[in-house]
Design goal:
Helices cover 33% and strands 19% of the residues. The chain contains 22 helices and 22 strands. A ten-stranded mixed sheet has the order 3-2-1-4-5-7-6-8-9-10, sandwiched between helices. Strands 14-13-12-16-15-19 form a six-stranded mixed sheet. Helix 11 packs across helix 18. The N and C termini lie far apart (75 Å).
C-alpha cells in the first residue's frame, strides 16, 4: 500500500476502471480515434491499459510507471488478455527515459493516454521528492525564476508539453486527465508553439466523485485529427456530444467563451472617468481592523481593548461581505492612517493622540510587515488609498467569489465605506451617479462581456485588469442610456482649489485636438 507521503510525492490518484473505459469510448465516439500505438507514460495499476485493451482492439500498448509495485499489479491484471503479445508494461522513470528514441521507432497514429501526476513542483520540493523533471525555463519566466527554474508549475503541465513535442512531427492524439487550469495554460502554449497543428477539446469531470479531490478537473484532448477550429471546445461531461462553449484567443487575450466575446467585443474600451480600484492594503489585520465594543471603545484582533478617537476609523466591508451582499452594516472598522499614499502620518499625533499611541504600542507588528512597499515610507503607512477612497458612494465586487455580483454601497454611520484589498470598486460623490453606473455594470451585455473573459477556477477570477476592459460608455450606448452617461461623464466639475474644470471626457477630446 502506498504511504500518504508517497501518494503526494508521485501525484498518485489512481483512475477508476469505469472512468478509464468511459474516456476511451468518448475518444472513439466523438473523435473517431483508432490508434496503431497507445502510450501510457504513468500507468499506475493499469486502469487505462485495461480500458485500452477493451476498447481499442489490436493496438500496440506501451505502459510505464516509476512504481515497481504498480507495474507488477498492472501486469498481473492483464495476464488473460488475448492481445497480450502487443502489450508491454515496465518500470521506468518518465524524467529519465529516452523518449526521442522510443518515439522515432513508432509508426501510425499514436494515442498518448492516461492520468499524469496531479501535483506541483513546489509541493514536491516541500517533500524533498526526487520525482522532479530537470529544472528549465520551459514557461519562459523572467528574472531569478528563469535562472533557477524555481517557478511553481504542475508536473502534468510539464509532461503535457513533452507529449506535444513528441507529436510535433507525427500524427496522433493526447488524451489525459488533468486539472482544468493546467489544460487552459497548455492551450495558450500550444497555440504559441505549434499554431493550429492540434485541435483542442476539454471534457469536464467531477474529480470529487472519481478521486475525492476538490479541484476542477477534465479530460484534455489534443489531436492532429479534424483540425477545423482555432478554439478549444469545452464539453459538459464525457457523455456530451456537443460543446457548451469555446476557449480561445482574441485580441491578445485568452478567453473563457469566444462566441460570447465576439458578440460583445464592441463593448471593449476604457473609461476616462470611471476607474476601477482595489481596497486598502495594510498587511496587519490584527492591529488595523477593530470591532466596536461601545462608544469610543474598540477591540482589535489580538483581543486588546482601546479607547480611540474615531477620526481615523472607517467602516470596513471585506470580500466575504461583498460576496454575500452584506452591505448595509459593517462588522469591523479599519484604521486609515493616510488620505493618500506617502502622506506624512505625524499629523495623527496632534489630531488623535490616543490613536497615535495605539500605533506606537503596536510598532513591532506594523514595523515587521514584510512587503517592500512599506520600506522608506512614513510610519504606519498603508496602500490602496486616495481621494477615490473617501467618496461616499461605491459600486463593489469581490475578486475572490465565483460570480459576477456587484453591490451598490452607501455610507455607513455617516462615513465612506472602505474595503479590503481583495475587493474591486468604483466610487462616486452622489447616489444618483452611482445608481446610473450600477445600471450599466449590471446590464446583461456588460455581464456577458465580462463573463466571456473570466476563468472561474482562478484563485482571484475577477481582477481590476479585467473590469477595466469594459467601456461603460459603450454599454450605455448599447442599452440606450448614452445621454444619461454623458451627463455625468462630461459634467463640469470643481477642483480642490475651487476652480471650474472641464469634465474628463471633454478634456480628453481637447487634448486630442
Amino acid at each position: 500500500m502506498v504511504k500518504l507521503r508517497d501518494k503526494w510525492q508521485f501525484g498518485d490518484f489512481q483512475t477508476p476502471d469505469d472512468l478509464a473505459i468511459e474516456v476511451c469510448r468518448t475518444l472513439i465516439r466523438n473523435h473517431q480515434i483508432l490508434p496503431q500505438v497507445i502510450i501510457e507514460s504513468s500507468c499506475g495499476k493499469g486502469a487505462f491499459i485495461r480500458a485500452a485493451i477493451s476498447e481499442f482492439k489490436n493496438s500496440q500498448i506501451l505502459g510505464f510507471d516509476v512504481n515497481a509495485e504498480y507495474v507488477t499489479a498492472a501486469n498481473s491484471s492483464i495476464t488473460n488478455s488475448s492481445n497480450i503479445k502487443n502489450i508491454t508494461i515496465r518500470q521506468a522513470d518518465f524524467f529519465d527515459m529516452d523518449w526521442k528514441t522510443i518515439m522515432s521507432e513508432l509508426l501510425g497514429h499514436i494515442l498518448i493516454l492516461g492520468n499524469p501526476p496531479w501535483v506541483t513542483s513546489s509541493e514536491l520540493s516541500l517533500l524533498n521528492s526526487e520525482n522532479l523533471p530537470t529544472k528549465s525555463n520551459f514557461q519562459q519566466r523572467r528574472g531569478i525564476e528563469a535562472i533557477t527554474g524555481s517557478g511553481n508549475f504542475d508536473i502534468s503541465e510539464w509532461m503535457l508539453l513533452q507529449h506535444i513535442e513528441w507529436l510535433s512531427k507525427k500524427e496522433g492524439t493526447i488524451a489525459l486527465l488533468c486539472k482544468y487550469a493546467v489544460a487552459r495554460k497548455v492551450i495558450r502554449q500550444v497555440k504559441q508553439k505549434t499554431g493550429n497543428r492540434f485541435a483542442g477539446y476539454i471534457y469536464l469531470i467531477d474529480a470529487k466523485i472519481h478521486f475525492g479531490a476538490a479541484v476542477d478537473a477534465c479530460l484534455f484532448v489534443l489531436s492532429t485529427n479534424n483540425i477545423d477550429s482555432i478554439d478549444c471546445e469545452v464539453y459538459e461531461d464525457l457523455q456530451s456530444t456537443k460543446s457548451i462553449y469555446l476557449i480561445g484567443q482574441r485580441d491578445g487575450l485568452i478567453l473563457h467563451d469566444t462566441v460570447k466575446y465576439e458578440k460583445w467585443k464592441h463593448l471593449a474600451g476604457q473609461d476616462l472617468k470611471y476607474l476601477w480600484r482595489s481596497g486598502v492594503k495594510h498587511d496587519c489585520s490584527k492591529v488595523m481592523e477593530l470591532e466596536r465594543i461601545r462608544k469610543n471603545l474598540f477591540q482589535n484582533g489580538l483581543g486588546e481593548q482601546y479607547v480611540l478617537e474615531e477620526d481615523y476609523l472607517y467602516p470596513l466591508l471585506k470580500s466575504s461581505d461583498i460576496g454575500n451582499g452584506r452591505v448595509n452594516e459593517c462588522r469591523k472598522l479599519v484604521l486609515i492612517t493616510q488620505q493618500m499614499v506617502g502622506e506624512n502620518t505625524e499629523i495623527i499625533r496632534e489630531k488623535a493622540p490616543k490613536t497615535w499611541q495605539y500605533l506606537i504600542d503596536h510598532d513591532e507588528y506594523l514595523g515587521s510587515r514584510k512587503s517592500s512597499i512599506y520600506k522608506n515610507k512614513p510610519l504606519y503607512s498603508i496602500f490602496g488609498i486616495g481621494a477615490y477612497s473617501f467618496k461616499r458612494w461605491k459600486i463593489a465586487i469581490s475578486g475572490l467569489y465565483k460570480r459576477l455580483s456587484f453591490s451598490l454601497v452607501s455610507p455607513l454611520d455617516g462615513k465612506a465605506v472602505m474595503f479590503d484589498d481583495t475587493v474591486n470598486f468604483l466610487s462616486f460623490e452622489t447616489k444618483e451617479e452611482a445608481q446610473l453606473v450600477f445600471k450599466l455594470v449590471t446590464a446583461v451585455p456588460a455581464l456577458e462581456f465580462l463573463d466571456a473573459m473570466i476563468f472561474w477556477d482562478e484563485k482571484r477570477p475577477i481582477t481590476i485588469e479585467l473590469l477595466r476592459r469594459l467601456s461603460l460608455r459603450a454599454v450605455a450606448q448599447e442599452i440606450g442610456m448614452l445621454a444619461d452617461y454623458l451627463d455625468w461623464a462630461e459634467a463640469i466639475q470643481i477642483n480642490q482649489n475651487g476652480q471650474l474644470e472641464l469634465g474628463l471626457v471633454e478634456k480628453s477630446l481637447s487634448y486630442r485636438a
